[in-house]
Amino acid sequence: MASPKEASHSIEIAGPNVGGTGYGLLGKSHPLLQWPFPKSFAGLTWRPTIPSEEQAFAAMHAALTSGCNLWNGGEIYGTPDNNSLTLLKNYYTLYPENADKEVLNIKGATRPGLQPYGSPDYVIESVEDCLQMLGERGRIDMFECARRDPKVPLKETLGALAELVDEGKIGGVALCDVSANTIREAAKITRIVAVEVELSLWSTEPLTNGIAEACFELNIPIIAYSPIGRGMFTGRIKSLGDIPQGNVRKILARFQPQNFGTNMKLLRELEKMAQKENCTPAQLALAWVRSLSNKERMPRIIPVPGARTAERVKEKPSRSS
């Protein structure tokens, strides 16, 4: 996943510099619950079976030493007592010297059913809960509401977060899965330090729907989640039977029976291209996302793939551009 060259491709985000590839904490601390309210669906805390803390810590440590110091987590990645934040707290207890080496992007402010709730009081409560779960060594460099709440004026939601920035409780305000119009509206309310969206060879919408353009014009970096196609490009999913029951992919269009076969044919083509480049499909897919960063009229783009093991983290992309 990462390369020792990551540090030389540093990008400034929320103040500190981060490597050209980050690390997703989605899925490292709680087993999968059933849809429609999955508390987990991939990575280190959202998986049908979870890695041990020892395995998770080894993967996290490998990411950090590889230069992948932008870490993406959230209170919704697990249960209140076992999620990516509590995992971080335990990690910092074991490795206190690393507590100041990562840049943490944390999402929250949702209610059961993953419903966004952007009232100022609830947003503040969510941040306070996250800080408590992180413990005294943790800090939140960026906080984002997991989605925009259409029932609450954006000015009220972001105004509450801006106050928390002024109080020093969070480092900056980010956005997650919002439209280009929302990005422009938000930037008029407070400084937006990052926008998180799904971006991969399978999810190229941000490149054409105005999101990338808005971020470029406003000088806002994009944090690209699921850059390897929700695990599809790893080659571990060869049939629909490889997707565990209750996994969120069961409801996504690309994993439905009428689409899966066509997508597998496309994956075979990607595999052929990767073979020519002497790399894996996942490495090629990740390198493609990285290559978009700072192209003409493109913002800085930082993919945040997840990985359960240190071995996966240490896989070097064929191209580190």
Automatic annotation (TrEMBL):
One Pfam family it belongs to: Aldo_ket_red
NADP-dependent oxidoreductase domain ranges (all copies): 46-315
Keyword Endoplasmic reticulum among UniProt keywords: no
One cellular component term from this protein's GO annotations in UniProt: cytoplasm
Keyword field: Oxidoreductase
InterPro entries named among the record's database cross-references: Aldo-Keto_reductase (IPR050791), NAD(P)_OxRdtase_dom_sf (IPR036812), NADP_OxRdtase_dom (IPR023210)
UniProt cross-references to SUPFAM superfamilies, sorted A to Z: NAD(P)-linked oxidoreductase
Keyword Disulfide bond listed: no
Matching CDD domains: AKR_AKR8A1-2 (cd19077)
GO molecular function: oxidoreductase activity
PANTHER family tied to this protein: AFLATOXIN B1 ALDEHYDE REDUCTASE, PYRIDOXAL REDUCTASE-RELATED
This protein's name: NADP-dependent oxidoreductase domain-containing protein
Annotated organism of origin: Letharia columbiana
